[in-house]
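Please complete every field before forwarding. Incomplete forms are returned to the sender.

SECTION A: IDENTIFIERS
Entry label: holo-418
Bound molecule: zinc ion
Molecule representation: SMILES string

SECTION B: INPUTS
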Amino acid sequence: MRRPVVFIVMPVRTAVIIGIILLLGVVIYALEIAVVTTVAPIRDVVSGRTVAIDAGHGGPDSGARGKSGVIEKDINLHIALELRQLLGRAAVYTVMTRESDHDLIEDGEDITGSRKRTELERRASLVNSKSPDIFVTVHANSFPEPQWSGAQVFYNPQSAEGRRLAVHIQTELVSRLGPNTRKARPADIYLLKRVNAPAALVEVGFLSNPREERLLADAAYRERVAEAIFHGIVAYFADSPKSDGAAHMLDDDPGNTWGIVTKAGALASPLTPDSTTLYFGGPTNFDDSLMPEVREIPGLTAMDRTEALAAVLHATIAGPGKDSILQSTIPRGTILRSVRLQGDTASADFSAELVVNHWGGSRSEEMTVYSIVNALTEFAYVKRVELLVEGKPLETISGHMQIEGPLERNLSIVHVRG
Ligand SMILES: [Zn+2]
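SECTION C: PREDICTED COMPLEX
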């Protein structure tokens, strides 16, 4: 009977404080219920899964660089670490290829062969050794045309699950960070091919676009990027694969003219015997692909084969025609050292600028490579193209592609305006 008495004699101020504390307790309890009910479905969907996260580049390899000095490897790492934290909160296991500014090669280590190739192989085997459910590699893009902007996700064209993952992440990037008209696209990227799990390469934006460079330099924006990727991953796990291969959601927009161009001749307006097709970058933000340009090279038919190949490469290096709206694909200062033809394989040797002055970015790397390969394979007697830089086989330009041996014509990244 004493306790109520204690309350009654308590000073009013103390009673008020106790009241507030009790009220706060009730509010916090209610909030917790609300939070738990919101978070629980996400946890149910993803908990116990394993996601491997790769922060692109690192250490001596900086990746792309913005005009104001923003460096791709740093952006990638911060977003990757944020993503790990978000996944961790949802009870997802994560595997990181790096957690600080280094690559996967020790200082002073003796590497036989190319450092970059060894480095990428190690990332792939590290990821494969953990057998994750999915793999996401984070990059920032760059292109010579400052107008290009928008986050974009790439996948291995051989992987339907990779495509599904990429489409989900793209959808979240667009809806959370838009406006952005980019779509998930197939790409020839070494890690996407070598990692066994469904894989997506996320280009979080263009460091070559002043607005996006500014955004990506802001830690709060990078956190939003990580959240968008996180929600894309959740959506991927939530959308269990349908037996029909989930084709319903993979349809690109009906008006899209992407796809494999089977006959290069079909691209051409009236051809003269001295005309050939060159390949340059698309003119706008919507054309993240190569586009054909029919070009007359005087005397082309009279040249011997090697001369003709050299003429086409000189024209590709020189860039789009005077009145063209297309973009150059070859970094400034690049010169052709030599071109040779052995059997049906052409070997083109370029100066170091092809690599040193490249602007970085996975898509632009592909575009540089295939603008050369496609222009040379316009000639029926060229079936394969070997790329060399300063006399040595080219293995990668900016660290996204891994080139092994001569390349064949690739028209899947050629976009023809319909
Ligand atoms: Zn990159």
